[in-house]
Amino acid sequence: MSRARAPGTFGAAWLVARKDLAIEFRTRTAFFSALVFAVLALCIFYFAWDESIIAPAQRAPGVLWVVLAFSALLGLQRSFSIEEHDRGIDALLVSPISRESIYLGKAIGNLLFLCAIQLITIPALALFYNLPIGRPLMVVTAIVLLAMIGIVAVGTLFSAMAVNTRLAELLLPMLSLPFFVPILMNAAQATTRVLGDRPLAESWPWLKILIAFDLVFVVACTLAFPFTLEE
Amino acid sequence: MTSAPASASARTVLSSGLTAPKPIFDWFFALAGLSVLAVAVRAIYFTPMEALQGAAQKIYYIHVPSALGAYIAVGITALTSVVYLWLHDERADRLAEASAEVALVFITVVLTTGPIWAHKIWGAWWVWWDMRLTFTLFLWFIVAAYLVLRDGIEDPAMRGRYGAVLAILGALLIPFIHLSVYLFSARLHPMPVVLKPDKPSLPPEMLTTFLLAFVAFTLLCFALIRARYRIAVQRDLVTAFEGDGGSR
After folding, report:
1. CB B29 within 8 A of CB B228
2. How many folded domains does chain A comprise?
3. DSSP-based three-state secondary structure for B124
4. Taking 50 as the threshold, does the pLDDT of residue B192 lie above it?
5. Do A189 and B183 touch (CB under 8 A)?
6. Which end of chain A is more exposed for a tag (fewer CB within 10 A), N or C?
7. How confident is the model at residue B4 (pLDDT cuts 50, 70, 90)?
């Protein structure tokens, strides 16, 4: 085994992520469908409430997090299903990189993919819901990044598991959404406060749980991933 | 699947000494069923009415013990999942599967009886600010996902590993849901302390009924897990023998 020539865990992870992003950049199908879904959902949710009862700016946090969770699911679904064509996953498994790097690479690829979608969704939200553009929106973007790390950590693992079941993509929401609950709950609460121009200290308890979630599940899912591959 | 690994798994099943099919009469299950029935009779006819809540309080003799049963079953699933990933013992996996299914039943009972009581006492079928109710609901979703995941996988070894991974991650998730719901509800309402029966100050008859109900439902929980475990053994035997005959 030529371990000496193989890249390290993070170097290999970056190679895997770059491969996934290159495929996505050349086909662009998943990106556009997830993006259009997100923006479309923003518009549809606008009409779900009576404008005169709840001001658009007040429902923006809730809408943002619902749309974000479901567009994330769309992006995560294809993470491992693209490896099913021609059994690309086998090629990854025989390559001289650790299984943890495959997971981290997939997760980094998914994170960048989803962040790219959010970079358009958040301004679209501000546009459609008349949010003030400025510091609060920057803080919200930071919260979104924090939440995305947790969503991607569990979502990538479950995506790897779901493709090997009879139900395939249908199973991903059922597995992932219970794990998204603490993320969405805390992120939405923090977002409401930030957009309401409350001091950041008020959001801190929610953000602490979010950070703890990220730490625990990035480590736990990285350790659990090798068990989801064929031995 | 070729017959070679299948006959190997047949040997594993046979070597674990669980081949003799003997569930003609499940005495343990009968005992558990009778004790639950006895507790129900005691709770309805021989336990005094609670002064403030009236008959609605009696639902507690099902609701709280069921929650206990659910937590026992969920705990067994989490523990046996760790054991399975560690030792790769098929018995641990069967036990995890059996207790997860029993857990779903008990949680369903908790989630059905809870709103009935809440409707009478709190005036609303569902209150999101009650931490335990919300928390139990999400527990139901996790257990349901666990069972659907297992159902979608044919290969026993993969089913075991995937199930174990989800169960362990689910156990890690529980404190986060608990904390989130707590933070969420602390902001809205004080915890419902007034109408909660304070257990040490219960009248002795009620306390006895409560304790008996705990015993009966724990028995029922273990009896159901045992019965479900036997079904899993039978299924694995059938799969193994089918593999031996080369039909798969």
Report:
1. no
2. 1
3. coil
4. no
5. yes
6. N
7. very low
